[in-house]
Backbone:
């Protein structure tokens, strides 16, 4: 090849190197600029959301949440009783949850209200409880322990905080409620009442847990005791002082805003998780333990802005819900809006990928918490109704007649924030809430057949009282 041709190609090659090199440098500058701008946007957005929480006095860490809780002395801590009995409760749960012999604890269906339990079912329950007298004696101690604390460890991965006690709490409550039904059947109404209160205490041993799932477990135990109470009152009667004590216990438990604590804890959990990601790297988002396949530091640095943006978006979604939690109706409305915004985040929008997959759905939790509050308020009102009937020999004309002697005021329906309803039916009365769908169906609280899905829930939710118990004591 001639020297002339070689000299002609050198400038072309040099130009090509310059073009490629310039393009690479430009791309790197653009990438670096994007990373730096994203980091600044993320920091600014996150700082704004954090400041919003601080201005309202909200908790930012688990330590903040725990600082607001009054410590529980060991001698008053119902959670310690559950921990002591954990192995026994677990064995009972595993042995009986598939049994067809027992309602609540096993798979046996509770007869439709107000039908009494079959004799065979009663005999099976009595046999089981006779074998559990030592366990019952230990659980009965919690009758004077209205609070509990399980001493959770929040130092590790916030998404892997272990909550083995939830099942134990529910199992213990089911056993106690079965014992309450037996006590009432045997005519010991004082002990039946005490055990219903004990079951409430056992459920509220989880009250200090800052988790939605723990609050829903408390709600489930509350609902269980209400179901037992409604059944017992079809067969037997409590005296006036016992009814007043039960009414006070249910009112105290209903006053605990489960959803407010759970939502505040959920926000702290999200904050803790993003902090965990910053400390241990992006690989923790794949559930890998820290150090298992550590992502390069430069990768974590480059994505730090996106992590901040996602955390800010998460707080932007959940904070209005936390702020609305003082009202169940407002919380449900805020949760519905949050779900709409979350659903509207496009799957192709990589900016908020983490927020979309990490943010839990909270709408149903808000509904269930409101439902629990409604049934507890109906129960308080029903107990006041029973006290009125004992004193006057008839039902009141309206719930206003219960005020102020039996109620300070007529409880408010958490779903529409109107006073609870009261209807007279054929042979019974019902105190009720309009329920999740928000429509007054005249006190239709019959439970549809099971396995029909959530849409088959009773139109209204409430508490029924027979005009005359089937068996008077």
Residues:
């Amino acid at each position: 090849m001639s020297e002339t041709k070689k000299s002609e190609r050198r400038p072309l090659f040099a130009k090509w190197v310059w073009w490629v090199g310039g393009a690479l440098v430009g791309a790197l500058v653009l990438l670096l600029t994007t990373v730096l701008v994203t980091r600044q946007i993320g920091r600014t957005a996150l700082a704004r959301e954090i400041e919003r929480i601080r201005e309202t006095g909200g908790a930012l860490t688990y330590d903040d949440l725990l600082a607001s809780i009054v410590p529980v002395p060991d001698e008053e801590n119902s959670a310690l009783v559950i921990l002591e009995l954990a192995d026994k409760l677990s064995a009972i749960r595993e042995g009986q949850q598939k049994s067809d012999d027992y309602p609540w604890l096993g798979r046996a269906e509770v007869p439709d209200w107000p039908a009494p339990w079959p004799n065979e079912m009663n005999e099976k329950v009595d046999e089981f409880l006779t074998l559990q007298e030592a366990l019952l004696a230990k659980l009965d101690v919690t009758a004077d322990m209205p609070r509990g604390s399980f001493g959770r460890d929040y130092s590790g991965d916030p998404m892997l905080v272990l909550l083995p006690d939830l099942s134990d709490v529910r199992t213990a409550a089911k056993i106690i409620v079965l014992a309450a039904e037996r006590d009432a059947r045997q005519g010991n109404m004082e002990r039946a009442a005490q055990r219903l209160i004990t079951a409430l205490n056992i459920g509220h041993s989880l009250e200090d847990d800052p988790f939605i799932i723990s609050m829903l477990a408390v709600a489930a135990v509350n609902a269980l005791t209400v179901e037992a109470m409604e059944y017992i009152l079809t067969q037997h009667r409590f005296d006036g002082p016992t009814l007043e004590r039960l009414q006070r216990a249910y009112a105290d438990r209903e006053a605990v805003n489960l959803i407010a604590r759970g939502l505040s804890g959920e926000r702290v959990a999200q904050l803790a998780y993003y902090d965990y990601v910053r400390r241990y790297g992006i690989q923790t988002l794949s559930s890998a333990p820290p150090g298992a396949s550590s992502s390069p530091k430069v990768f974590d640095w480059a994505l730090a802005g996106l992590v901040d943006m996602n955390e800010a978006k998460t707080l932007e979604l959940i904070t209005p819900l936390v702020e609305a939690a003082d009202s169940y109706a407002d919380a449900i409305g805020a949760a519905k809006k949050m779900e709409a915004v979350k659903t509207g985040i496009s799957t192709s929008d990589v900016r908020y990928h983490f927020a979309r997959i990490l943010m839990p759905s909270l709408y149903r939790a808000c509904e269930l918490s409101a439902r629990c509050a409604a049934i507890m308020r109906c129960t308080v009102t029903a107990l006041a109704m029973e006290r009125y009937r004992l004193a006057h020999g008839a039902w009141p004309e309206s719930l206003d007649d219960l005020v102020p002697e039996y109620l300070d005021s007529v409880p408010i329906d958490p779903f529409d924030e109107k006073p609870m309803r009261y209807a007279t039916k054929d042979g019974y009365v019902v105190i009720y809430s309009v329920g999740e769908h928000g429509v007054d169906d005249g006190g239709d609280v019959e439970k549809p057949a099971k396995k029909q899905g959530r849409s088959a829930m009773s139109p209204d939710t409430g508490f029924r009282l027979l005009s005359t118990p089937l068996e008077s004591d």
Remarks:
- Residues 321 and 333 are 9 Å apart (CA to CA).
- The beta strands are 421-424, 428-433, 461-466.
